[in-house]
Amino acid sequence: MTESNRSIEQQQAAMPDWEKRFRAPRVSLPDWAEDAPHRSLFVSNATGTYELYAWDRATGEQRQVTHRANGTTDGVLSPDGEWIWWFDDKDGDEFGIWRRQRFSGEAERKGKGDGDSADEPAVPGLEPSYPSGLAIGRDGRTAVVGRSTDDDGSTIHVARTGEAPVEIYRHRESAGVGDLSHDGSLIAIEHTEHGDAMHSALRVLRLDGSTVAELDDSKGGTVELGLEVLGFAPVDGDTRLLIGHQRRGRWEPLVWDVVSGEETDLALDLPGDVAAEWYPDGSALLIAHSFEARSDLWRYDIASRELVKVETPPGSVSGATARPDGTVEYLWSSAAEPSAVRSTTGEIVLDPPGLKSPGSVPVEDVWVDGPGGRIHALVQKPAGATTPLPTVFDIHGGPTWHDSDSFAAGPAAWVDHGYAVVRVNYRGSTGYGREWTDALKHRVGLIELEDIAAVREWAVTSGLADPDRLILTGGSWGGYLTLLGLGTQPDAWTLGIAAVPVADYVTAYHDEMEALKAMDRTLLGGTPEEVPERFSASSPLTYVDAVKSPVYISAGVNDPRCPIRQIDNYVDRLTARDAVHEVYRYDAGHGSLVVDERIKQVRLELDFANRHLQL
């Protein structure tokens, strides 16, 4: 062993477990090329920054594809396995262009000199924008690119190598590319032309932009229902499109023949939300089933309609894919065990070398009666700890998301430092039915906080939580709820820690990316000018003068989702009244892809909490 290797091992041995969890190499579920399944693309933090990696399974060679200071995670492998497309924005602002490079990493010469980058603009002629879906054809020269800008709204373009891109769709409301048929003749898009950004309708277009079929479950109904594209059948000439629907109050798959109009409802007898993707030969579906913060996998045979469970460990599957040989690869974890890419063969598919992540403690399930129904919360606490404990309410973002029994380094860090952690799947969360997800409209933020307050009451009265040491925290929408909670429930929380939050809802609306404006109009029923009272009631800035607790805020200066100006407005109000607060700004967007930066932020949050709770 060299002296340098020994030094690294000594440093790792002395490192606290919470930091090891962030530094340990992690990988995403590998994407693979449809016509070259030995070629894969995945994301890893092996260098200390999350970047894209190419993996040739035939040779075992892995190669880092992108090298950017603030990291890269958005990439797509072309079906022929020849090209890697990746999205190039500026320091996390999510506004940029698609670039591409050969899977081999070699630059096409075309007059380039030695040492020139292998990357090239994937669609010359398209100006920078926010991405809104991408589908690449199997012919190696056709792509369908979705994009949005503040000026143009949503547009979709067909791009062919050597030709100028052609616009085939435009609308002010949000829309995006869903999938391209196996033979490259049909495009499925999701759109919200009806003005409801939470419930998309579907349209199938030819490459010239003419319409083949439409499906809109919100049309003419009193109940708002959404649809989503899950993928065309992987067979040439097959016009079946797998879609998700909400007709029975939850997400379920059905098969829609976009030419004949025939719909085949699978009617799977599984509780909770159900998604699906095709097996590579089109004979079966891989079913992803999510229920009460856990998930599992099933195989559904199209011909026999037989549903067979795919065995996975208890916990959460955050991604899965069926391989051409019939095996299934999936990304799995639980709150106690770090994530791993596994196969139904029993093997670990990707096992990055280096530091291994320590585990954490398992979650306990709690159900609490709330104003809108039973609320599911997940609780972690230090092993053998004596209650009551200082307790962190770690609120998830989205809001259409949910906390699950999956591994998370952030909550584990709090547990390591002696805190109990409570995560609440408030109204607005996914996985508990359409009504639960859609319940937060118009009284945005206030409804979620009612559920959080009910779980807080349980945590105190059960003896788990020390009422004098309660932290409200979260990122993105969770950061928004943190600031709103500190203002509307000022006596409930000892301190608040908000990451990339909405702080001033009106300014946030005017500064944020166009797709989020559409979402806010849906949630609140209009623009700030049309429904000013709703924006005011849901804005943390309205209640900033009522905040009593110390406040810590972190924000990315390039964030297009929770822009910096509206956070500065909130901080200025805190400063004007000499309220106790600290602010940390960093050079990235809606969060950081740099491991050292993530660790720095967690260290600052822990320090803030320990100082103010005198731990």
Task: Write the SSE topology.
Layout: H1 3-14, H2 17-23, E1 31-33, E2 36-44, E3 51-56, E4 62-64, E5 75-77, E6 83-89, E7 96-102, E8 120-121, E9 130-136, E10 142-149, E11 153-160, E12 166-171, E13 175-180, E14 186-191, E15 201-206, E16 211-215, E17 227-232, E18 240-245, E19 252-257, E20 263-265, E21 273-278, E22 284-291, E23 294-301, E24 307-310, E25 316-322, E26 328-333, E27 340-343, E28 348-350, E29 364-370, E30 373-380, E31 389-395, H3 409-416, E32 420-425, H4 434-438, H5 446-461, E33 465-475, H6 477-488, E34 495-499, H7 505-511, H8 514-524, H9 532-537, E35 551-556, H10 564-576, E36 581-586, H11 595-613
Parallel strand pairs: 31-32, 31-33, 33-34, 34-35, 35-36
Antiparallel strand pairs: 1-2, 2-3, 3-4, 5-6, 6-7, 7-8, 9-10, 10-11, 11-12, 13-14, 14-15, 15-16, 17-18, 18-19, 19-20, 21-22, 22-23, 23-24, 25-26, 26-27, 27-28, 29-30, 30-32
Helix pairs in contact: 2-3
Low-confidence stretches: none
Largest sheet: 8 strands, mixed
Number of strands: 36
Level of helix content? 10-25%
Instruction: Report the β-strand fraction as a percent range.
Output: 25-35%
Query: For the terminal residues, how far apart are their CA atoms?
Result: 41 Å
Coarse shape: globular
Strand order in the largest sheet: 29-30-32-31-33-34-35-36
Whole-number radius of gyration? Answer: 24 Å
Mean pLDDT: 95
| SS class | alpha+beta
Number of helices: 11
